[in-house]
Write a structure and sequence with these properties.
Elements (H helix, E strand, L loop, with lengths): L1 E6 L2 E5 L8 H14 L3 E6 L7 H10 L3 E4 L2 H10 L9 E3 L4 H10 L4 E2 L7 E5 L6 H12 L6 E6 L2 H15 L5 H11 L1 E4 L6 H8 L3 E4 L5 H4 L7 E4 L5 H6 L25 E6 L4 H17 L3 H11 L2
Parallel strand pairs: 2-3, 2-5, 3-4, 5-6, 7-8, 7-10, 8-9, 10-11
Antiparallel strand pairs: 1-12
Helix pairs in contact: 1-2, 3-4, 5-6, 11-12
């Protein structure tokens, strides 16, 4: 038996265009599909009064030949069932609003779905030796995505937590998305105080965050206990924003606890595996008895017959 990997015939890439347009998200979805060898890549995005020039440039650079301006749940439906102008695809990728997520959830099975993306989230682990301004900036970076984003700090020092809070107040004042940051942190921001910084592992594995940034200097012991996290960033200089853009990792990551059973987007998500079996007469003889016993155990006499009939030869 051997396995053969082949690209999916066609995929649809949903590119959000409502509150914001993220060129990096288009790149993160399209490049693995191109590397995998997908023959037909369809890009679909909500219509706007003025088309983002970066979007047009990227479509050309990536060589995507099919682009449609349609958004929301109806876009997911169009990619699934097809319309007079849009042929259906085999699998859909890309984040969207709550309506897009619900449409993907309901149509899974009729079409392949990458993952059900929720609000962005980060856990930052830090101690009193770390720079509170740097830690505050990492929490703010996730909070500015939208009001539902979640930023969590885990520390073993109450005074350090207070310093981080003061840094947040200071830094956010000059940021354009100040109101979004404030609402996000007020509704979803958490500071978890632990007696020992190593206890952070239990919280992290329970939450299974999209992003995990471990600031502490001796991070190896804590890292060995982490099973559930989408993207992990080690040390003070491993800024999560690098993971969003240019260090080679994909920023399409599991959210809402999905890191417990899934990983970030990659080339293999745009491929499928075929199992190929070729049995000669000698191997047939060696496997026949065990196969017939299992068939009989499960009450599948047709299975058993398909082997037995060849033994009569």
């Amino acid at each position: 038996m051997k396995s053969v990997w082949k690209p999916i015939d066609s995929v649809g890439l949903y590119v959000p265009g409502g509150k914001a347009f993220y060129p990096s998200s288009l790149i993160m979805n399209a490049v693995p599909a191109i590397i995998a060898g997908v023959k037909r890549i369809v890009c679909i995005t909500p219509p706007t009064k003025s088309i983002n020039p970066y979007f047009i440039k990227l479509i050309k650079e990536l060589g995507i030949k099919e682009t449609y301006f349609i958004g929301g749940a109806q876009a997911i439906s169009a990619l699934t069932f097809g319309t007079q102008t849009i042929k259906p695809v085999n699998k859909i990728f890309g984040p969207g609003n709550a309506y897009v997520a619900e449409a993907k959830k309901q149509l899974y099975g009729k079409v392949g779905i990458d993952l059900l993306a929720g609000p962005s989230e980060i856990i930052v682990v830090a101690e009193n030796k770390n720079n509170p301004d740097w830690v505050a900036s990492d929490l703010i970076a996730q909070a500015e995505h939208d009001e539902n984003a979640q930023s969590i700090l885990i520390t073993d020092d109450k005074n350090f937590a207070t310093k981080v809070l003061n840094s947040i107040k200071k830094i956010k004042k000059d940021l354009p998305k100040k109101k979004i940051i404030e609402k996000s942190l007020r509704n979803n921001g958490i500071i978890a105080l632990v007696d020992n910084i190593e206890f952070a592992a239990e919280i992290i594995n329970f939450i299974a965050p999209e992003h995990l940034h471990i600031h502490i200097f001796n991070y190896k012991k804590l890292l060995s206990k982490i099973n559930n996290a989408g993207g992990i960033f080690l040390g003070e200089y491993s800024v999560e924003a690098f993971g969003d853009y240019n260090v080679g990792t994909n920023h399409v990551l599991p959210t809402s606890g999905a890191a417990k059973f899934s990983s970030g987007l990659g080339v293999l998500d745009f491929m499928k595996r075929n199992s190929i079996v070729e049995i000669n007469e000698k191997s047939f003889t060696n496997l026949s008895d065990d196969t017939q016993k299992m068939s009989g155990l499960e009450g599948l006499d047709g299975h058993k017959l398909s082997v037995k009939i060849r033994q009569k030869k």
